[in-house]
């Protein structure tokens, strides 16, 4: 597979992030263990009652969202490239006496490891930027959905990824439809900017057109595309908190979040 070295670099970085993230206030693992859901309003509203639904969670990190859905009565499977992430997810699943399953693999290889079909395929917040091409990703989604099932993504808006955040103030540096990989190397992580770890990451920008077209070409019917000013996470510089506890640009020059729901006929 092309880009194997880049994927391996990313996997190693995510492996190093797991322990830092598990200790961070950002992921608030102690509150999660006590029963607090890691899910946000966007995905809760979109997915509704998931009781007894089969959910495939792509790029699940160490499984908090997967396990949150499991607590809501869903039958969940989480997939992630990081073996350290999947190891912790399995530990949490056992500790919390839940019945989720977790598989360590590149998301683009999901169908090699999972043959089951699901009512819902879900992914969220910082996932598609790790993929060089969305066509095989969309094909995996189509393959793993039952007829009548749906795919849902809530993700940071592609305009936000046009900026280089390793400099201050952020500089608009990358193309909206840039095909070349973006390499960044920096100290820390979004969950703990003071951490000593060095993040080495390859990423790719994807336009909304590419997201929509890839899903449609894979046989999914687009139900909606929505864009929002407000992010549940304060991860970009200069955001202000609104009266609902969400984070926005003070000038609201561009949206920070988009969501897509698509149905497999």
What would you call the shape?
Answer: globular
Structural class: alpha/beta
Helix content: 25-40%
Largest sheet descriptor? 7 strands, mixed
Write down the CATH topology: Rossmann fold
Radius of gyration (Å): 18 Å
The CATH superfamily appears as: Vaccinia Virus protein VP39
First and last CA, distance: 30 Å
Total beta-strand segments: 13
Proportion of strand residues: 25-35%
Low confidence ranges: none
Provide key terms for this protein:
265 residues; alpha/beta; Rossmann fold; 7-stranded mixed sheet; two-stranded antiparallel ribbon; globular
Task: Characterise the protein shown here.
29% of the residues lie in helices and 28% in strands. It has one domain: Rossmann fold, CATH 3.40.50. The mean pLDDT is 97. Strand 4 (118-124), helix 7 and strand 5 form a beta-alpha-beta unit. The longest helix has 19 residues, at 4-22. The radius of gyration is 18 Å and the shape is globular. It has 265 residues and is α/β, with parallel strands linked by helices. The chain has 8 helices and 13 strands. Helix 1 (4-22) packs parallel to helix 5 (83-95) and helix 7 crosses helix 8 (208-217). The strands form 4 sheets. Strands 3-2-1-4-5-13-10 form a 7-stranded mixed β-sheet, sandwiched between helices. Keywords: Methyltransferase, Transferase. InterPro entries: Methyltransf_11, SAM-dependent_MTases_sf. One of its GO terms (biological process) is methylation.
């Amino acid at each position: 597979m092309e880009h194997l070295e880049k994927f391996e670099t990313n996997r190693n970085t995510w492996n190093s992030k797991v322990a830092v993230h598990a200790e961070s206030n950002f992921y608030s693992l102690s509150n999660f263990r006590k029963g607090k859901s890691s899910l946000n309003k966007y995905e809760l509203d979109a997915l509704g009652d998931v009781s007894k639904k089969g959910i495939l969670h792509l790029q699940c990190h160490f499984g908090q969202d997967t396990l949150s859905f499991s607590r809501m009565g869903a039958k969940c499977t989480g997939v992630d490239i990081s073996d350290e992430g999947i190891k912790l997810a399995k530990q949490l699943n056992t500790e919390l006496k839940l019945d989720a399953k977790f598989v360590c693999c590149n998301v683009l290889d999901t169908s090699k490891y999972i043959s089951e079909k699901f009512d819902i395929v879900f992914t969220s917040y910082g996932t598609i930027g790790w993929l060089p091409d969305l066509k095989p990703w969309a094909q995996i989604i189509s393959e793993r959905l039952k007829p009548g099932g749906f795919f849902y993504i809530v993700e940071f808006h592609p305009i936000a990824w046009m900026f280089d955040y390793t400099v201050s103030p952020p500089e608009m540096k990358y193309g909206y439809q840039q095909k070349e990989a973006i390499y960044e190397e920096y100290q820390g992580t979004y969950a703990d900017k003071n951490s000593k770890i060095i993040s080495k990451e390859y990423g790719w920008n994807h336009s909304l057109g590419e997201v929509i077209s890839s899903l449609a070409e894979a046989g999914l019917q687009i139900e909606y595309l929505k864009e929002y000013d407000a992010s549940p996470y304060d991860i970009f510089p200069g955001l202000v908190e609104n009266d609902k506890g969400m984070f926005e640009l003070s000038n609201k020059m561009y949206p920070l979040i988009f969501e897509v729901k698509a149905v497999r006929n």
